[in-house]
């Protein structure tokens, strides 16, 4: 799955990139208890001392925020995403734990063994570095930088972590019926290029701590402290050069900036000192003549770096990448040190994530469509799918009507927008056809080997797509995932079974709350097809302008309004000598546009449904009108607490705004909110001037 992520897909939410893989920890033996569920509509979350017209997030979530501190094994705790995510993970764990002990089918045996190997920390401890010794030996044998490409290719071939860049097959952005090879920048360990480049004091400190962390890891691997410190310097030199050569996240939002078709021969001319022909042979991709070089400048710089850095520096860098990427399945001392830096220091997490949670997540990542088959049987009844079909149809109708009434768009562009909308594909719950895992060998006594075989399996799956037609039925998320996405090249919206549960979607609650929850999620994904990135693709998934020049100009003026608005929101406050962090209005533009559009069209869809039932938006339940319940239901999806470190990290790396601004930014751009709560024009949530794209 990692390889296929060369092209963008737009999620409803993103977590923090921390402790991504399983980790030995002290609480291995504690049996998990079932977590409580979040209510779909929670009166006790509301802080009535706050004025909804001044700060709606505080009103809707204030008491929840006070009563729900971040658990020690998390960096962010959200009322809906985290609580439901924990619940799904627990249910999945029950399935894995049972399969590990007493498998009933060959598939249960496979994922049960994967999970059991991951949980076997005694064996992991005993084996030490043995499982990565073949990789370390290869790296130690590197003679000169000519050997770099065969080394990286050889590591990739075996499924060892292969650093420096990503290679895979993706849909051709200009001809979405084709799948082509693509290479793009990678090779960093810190969360973003800015961490290497920024001269702010906070980043200088982080780099110093990172250097100490690398040194400690090399020492654990058996090097003297002096050697380890020198190696850490070499790693930082190479990663910093790669960071400087990398294109920023914000620039990469523009699809034009990541689409450059090269012949293989011309690409090789760009990187004469790195033998890509050898690499392609090693990863066993069938021959091809052209490829997308997403970030040509990066590869040019990489080539410079190959000749300017001594072979010993490269050995240190690749050795570091190997140890770092394997830390979660190495002895506890390695994991603890990895957690200390990447979890505690960078993200503010107090305790390591319990092993059972990590191994459940790892099994879901590796064998998600195997585990998911049984999971949906137990937790996703057919009637949920039928209700979702109806909701999606209602939102689809509302978006079509919204396009019709858009004040700024010409009739020609409206027609083109409708044509795109008519070609949307909806995927709900889980794949029609499950992935075949028979080629993937799982061993019950080999956690790292399983990781390697999984990497090879996923790579082969991805590389086999080269030159073949696009599989429209393929999913990019596993069924228990609490998330959703829109993929512009496929022009499809995808809602895994995992999110189609309370508090997002509750068959027993009034429609206002469901439209504020899952309705806005659906509207959000639909609007992604028309945000700053999605709007550049047509209904067939091709990168092609379909707006008139005049309308595109107006579109950009309107998105610029959101860029400025959200760019003024605070992500983390100033204190001591650390400056305030603001949101990046450009990085979060697509998500903010999707939030704003989602809130508007789900509201329109709700009005339609209420009218059909002979009800109005002013009828009251629990003392709130249906309109107010809609906005409260929406806001309560986003109640959250987050560590300051994670908030600062997210502000640089996450295209999603934090909960507070997803709520307040969206409602202040939608007049129906101010009307529903009787706000006075000019109050913060009901301003004189606001932004509107869709
Ligand atoms: Zn999104």
Strand % is 5-15%
Strand order of the largest sheet: 1-8-9-7
Q: Mean pLDDT score, rounded?
A: 94
Uncertain runs:
1-5, 15-29
List the bound ligands. zinc ion
The N- and C-terminal alpha carbons lie at a distance of: 32 Å
| Helical content (DSSP H or I, runs of 4+) | 40-55%
Based on CA atoms alone, the radius of gyration comes out at 25 Å
* Structural class assignment: alpha+beta
How many strands?
A: 14
> How many helical stretches?
26
Sheet having the most strands: 4 strands, mixed
Topology record:
Layout: E1 10-11, H1 56-67, E2 76-78, H2 81-101, H3 106-119, H4 121-127, H5 133-140, H6 148-158, E3 165-172, E4 175-185, H7 194-197, H8 201-220, H9 225-245, H10 249-252, E5 261-263, H11 264-270, H12 276-282, E6 290-293, H13 296-308, H14 311-326, H15 332-347, H16 355-379, H17 382-405, H18 411-422, E7 425-429, H19 447-463, E8 485-487, E9 492-496, H20 511-528, H21 549-567, E10 570-572, E11 581-582, H22 589-612, E12 620-621, E13 624-625, H23 626-637, E14 640-642, H24 644-653, H25 659-668, H26 671-676
Parallel strand pairs: 4-6, 7-9
Antiparallel strand pairs: 1-8, 2-14, 3-4, 5-6, 8-9, 10-11, 12-13
Bound molecules: zinc ion (ZN).
């Amino acid at each position: 799955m990692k390889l296929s992520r060369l092209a963008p897909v737009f999620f409803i939410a993103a977590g923090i990139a921390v402790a991504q893989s399983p980790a030995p920890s002290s609480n291995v033996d504690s049996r998990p208890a079932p977590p409580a569920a979040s209510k779909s509509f929670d009166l006790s979350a509301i802080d009535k001392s706050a004025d909804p017209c001044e700060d709606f997030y505080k009103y809707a979530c204030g008491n929840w925020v006070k009563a729900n501190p971040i658990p020690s094994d998390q960096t962010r705790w959200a009322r809906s995403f985290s609580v439901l995510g924990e619940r799904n993970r627990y249910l999945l764990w029950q399935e894995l734990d049972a399969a590990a002990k007493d498998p009933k089918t060959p598939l249960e045996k496979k994922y049960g063994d994967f999970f059991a190997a991951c949980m076997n920390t005694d064996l992991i401890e005993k084996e030490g570095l043995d499982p990565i010794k073949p990789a370390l030996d290869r790296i130690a044998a590197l003679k000169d930088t000519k050997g770099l490409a065969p080394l990286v290719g050889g590591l990739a071939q075996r499924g060892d972590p292969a650093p420096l860049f990503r290679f895979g097959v993706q849909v051709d952005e200009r001809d979405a019926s084709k799948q082509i090879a693509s290479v793009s920048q990678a090779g960093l360990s810190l969360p973003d290029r800015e961490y290497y480049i920024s001269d702010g004091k906070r980043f200088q400190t982080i780099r110093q701590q990172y250097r100490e962390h690398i040194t400690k890891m090399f020492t654990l691997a058996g090097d003297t402290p002096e050697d380890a410190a020198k190696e850490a310097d070499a790693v930082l030199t190479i990663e910093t050069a790669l960071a400087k050569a990398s294109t920023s996240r914000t620039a990469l939002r523009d699809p034009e900036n990541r689409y450059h078709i090269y012949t293989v021969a011309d690409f090789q001319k760009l990187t004469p000192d790195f033998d890509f022909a050898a690499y392609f042979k090693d990863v066993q991709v069938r021959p091809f003549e052209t490829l997308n070089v997403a970030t040509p400048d990066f590869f040019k710089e990489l080539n410079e770096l190959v000749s300017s850095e001594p072979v010993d520096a490269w050995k240190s860098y690749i050795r570091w990448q190997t140890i770092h990427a394997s830390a979660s399945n190495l002895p506890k001392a390695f994991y603890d040190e990895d957690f200390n830096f990447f979890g505690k220091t960078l993200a503010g997490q107090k305790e390591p994530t319990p092993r059972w949670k990590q191994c459940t997540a790892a099994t879901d990542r590796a064998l998600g469509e195997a585990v998911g088959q049984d999971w949906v049987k137990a937790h996703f009844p057919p009637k949920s799918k039928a209700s979702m079909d109806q909701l999606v149809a209602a939102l689809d109708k509302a978006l079509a009507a919204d396009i019709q009434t858009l004040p700024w768009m010409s009739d020609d562009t409206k027609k083109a927008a409708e044509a795109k909308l008519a070609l949307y594909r909806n995927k709900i719950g889980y794949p029609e056809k499950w992935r075949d895992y028979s080629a993937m060998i799982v061993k019950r006594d080999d956690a790292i080997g399983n990781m390697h075989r999984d990497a090879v399996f996923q790579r082969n799956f991805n590389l086999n797509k080269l030159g073949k037609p696009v599989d429209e039925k393929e999913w990019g998320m596993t069924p228990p995932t609490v998330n959703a996405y829109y993929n512009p090249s496929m022009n499809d919206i995808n809602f895994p079974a995992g999110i189609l549960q309370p508090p997002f979607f509750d068959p027993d609650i009034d429609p206002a709350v469901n439209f504020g929850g899952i309705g806005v999620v659906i509207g959000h994904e639909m609007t992604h097809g028309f945000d700053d990135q999605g709007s550049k693709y047509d209904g067939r998934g091709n990168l092609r302008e379909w707006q008139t020049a005049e309308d595109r100009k107006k579109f950009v003026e309107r998105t610029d309004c959101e860029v400025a608005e959200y760019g003024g929101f605070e992500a983390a406050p100033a204190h001591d000598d650390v400056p305030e962090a603001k949101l990046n209005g450009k990085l979060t533009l697509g998500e903010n546009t999707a939030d704003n559009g989602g809130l508007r069209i789900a509201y329109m869809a709700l009005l339609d449904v209420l009218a059909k039932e002979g009800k109005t938006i002013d009828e009251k339940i629990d003392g709130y009108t249906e309109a107010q319940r809609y906005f409260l239901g929406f806001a309560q999806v986003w109640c959250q607490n987050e560590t300051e470190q994670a908030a600062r990290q997210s502000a640089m790396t996450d295209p999603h705004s934090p909960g507070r601004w997803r709520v307040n930014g969206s409602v202040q751009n939608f007049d129906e909110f101010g009307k529903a709560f009787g706000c006075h024009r000019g109050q913060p949530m009901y301003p004189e001037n606001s932004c509107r794209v869709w």
